[in-house]
Specification:
The protein is built from six helices and six strands. With about 180 residues, it is of the alpha+beta class. Strand 2 and strand 3 form a beta hairpin. The chain has two domains: about 120 residues, no CATH class; about 45 residues, no CATH class. The radius of gyration is 25 Å and the shape is elongated.
Length: about 180
């Protein structure tokens, strides 16, 4: 013991009432020892994605990506946020060491093994954040979002419109591509 070191965003022995309650709920749902593999990043990923979709009011990937920028999530024991510059999830990190269950800091074992992890070093999200030099290229909004509504015979900012009839069965985003040849781009 004492030789297995790991780094993760969370582990069952982080401690605290909210963390313990989350782990207890997980174990109640998945009581078998072989299922004792809670990975906090998985539900965090789904909950953050759902929050971004609600924030965007859409499932459109570009809108959701924009809504993710700066989004914050706090489960009561794990505060995190999405950095806008590079979409990096900023969250706490724990350096942990494996030890026998029941030793100080090891209340829970892993997978019924009798061994679990204790925290050696805890870094808050604020302390774990690293600088970025990323200059992420974001998608250009669709042309229709940039131009005013097209009126036949009237020059818009970037096109002369000849026909703006919507194509039955297609959404408004695909009208320009569906009517190619009808509008001079």
């Amino acid at each position: 013991m004492g030789h297995v070191i790991a780094v993760a965003e969370w582990h069952p022995n982080v401690s605290g009432a909210a963390s313990d309650a989350w782990y207890a709920a997980f174990r109640a749902r998945f009581p078998a020892a072989q299922d004792d593999y809670p990975v906090l990043r998985m539900p965090l990923m789904i909950e953050t994605l759902a929050a971004a979709m609600n924030r965007a009011g859409s499932a459109d990937p570009t809108a959701v990506a924009k809504a993710l920028e700066g989004i914050r999530f706090d489960s009561g024991f794990h505060a995190s946020w999405m950095r806008a510059d590079d979409h990096q999830l900023i969250q706490p990190f724990y350096v942990m060491q494996m030890d026998k269950a029941g030793t100080p800091g090891v209340h829970f074992d892993n997978e019924g093994s009798g061994y679990g992890f204790r925290t050696v070093l805890a870094l808050s999200a604020e302390r774990a954040v690293l600088p970025t030099v990323c200059r992420m290229r974001r998608p250009v909004p669709p042309r229709a979002a940039l131009d005013p509504p097209c009126q036949p015979g009237v020059r818009g900012r970037s096109r002369l419109c000849y026909n703006t009839r919507p194509v039955v069965g297609l959404g408004s985003d695909s009208v320009d591509s569906a009517t190619k040849g009808l509008s001079k781009l």
